[in-house]
Design a protein that fits this description.
The complex is a heterodimer of chains A (59) and B (140). Chain A is built from two helices and three strands. With 59 residues, chain A is α+β, with helices and mostly antiparallel strands. In chain A, strand 2 and strand 3 (27-31) form a beta hairpin. By secondary structure, chain B is α+β, with helices and mostly antiparallel strands. Chain B has a three-stranded antiparallel beta sheet with strand order 3-2-4. In chain B, helix 1 runs antiparallel to helix 2 (95-103) and helix 1 packs across helix 4 (114-130). Chain B is elongated. The termini of chain B are close together. Classes of the chains: A alpha+beta (59), B alpha+beta (140). The A-B interface holds A 1, 3, 5, 7, 9, 12, 14, 16, 18, 20, 23-30 and B 1-7, 79, 81, 114-116, 118-119, 122-123, 125-127, 129-130, 135, 138-139. Strand 3 (27-31) of chain A pairs antiparallel with strand 1 of chain B, so a sheet runs across the interface.
Chain lengths: 59, 140
């Protein structure tokens, strides 16, 4: 299962990335407001394939 | 900055065992507290995982109506990833329906799903990390 949760604490924004097939890749990542909003727009766009979103947050 | 958060396979196994025990405990609770036809409207079974900043991991399973404000203690913590399993397709559900659900193959499959439980654990661990001092490392 692959999950990217967009998390906000105060003014700080984080991605929580969970990949149960590669649990060693699970991570918390602090991101900029710009990156956060860009990614939000992307996941709201239903035409974007999930594989592309996975690829973007992979590594 | 990124912080990697690891799950051990043995931890997922332990959580799967705990959720199975939780389901058995709920059957015991419902059968001893209610008659079979007693109404438990809009019954849902919620499950989630929490981890404390000290690293203690808990499997949580609750029975209740997620939209009933009187049952606020029933709800998973805010921002916590959870699974809500509806006992009936309609608002009408009884104690008998709850027990039948807890014993059903479908529900058992959900709580034994290692992929799902691993995701709940990973999320709980990340949430614990964000409330710990280590969050300052991420922010640095």
């Amino acid at each position: 299962m692959y999950l990217v949760d967009m998390h906000t604490i105060g003014d700080e924004r984080y991605f929580i990335v969970i990949d149960t097939f590669h649990p060693e890749r699970n991570r918390v990542e602090k991101v900029s407001d710009e990156r956060f909003s860009e990614f939000l727009m992307k996941v709201l766009d239903t035409d974007v394939p999930v594989s592309e979103i996975e690829q973007e947050v992979a590594s | 900055m990124k912080l990697i958060v690891k799950n051990q396979a043995s931890e997922v196994t332990r959580l799967v065992e705990l959720f199975a025990q939780g389901a058995a405990d709920l059957v015991e609770h419902v059968t001893s507290s209610f008659g079979p036809d007693d109404e438990l409207p809009r019954a849902h079974i919620s499950m989630w995982v929490t981890e404390t900043v000290e690293g203690h991991v808990y499997a949580n399973m609750r029975l209740g109506d997620p939209d009933d404000p009187a049952e606020c203690g029933f709800m998973p913590p805010k921002d916590q990833m959870s699974v809500a399993y509806a006992v009936a397709d309609t608002d009408d559900s009884t104690a008998r329906d709850v027990v039948r659900t807890l014993r059903s193959r479908d529900f058992r499959t959900v709580i034994a799903d290692r992929d799902l439980v691993g995701t709940l654990l990973g999320h709980a661990r990340c949430a614990a990390l964000l409330t710990s001092d280590q969050a300052k490392e991420i922010a640095a």
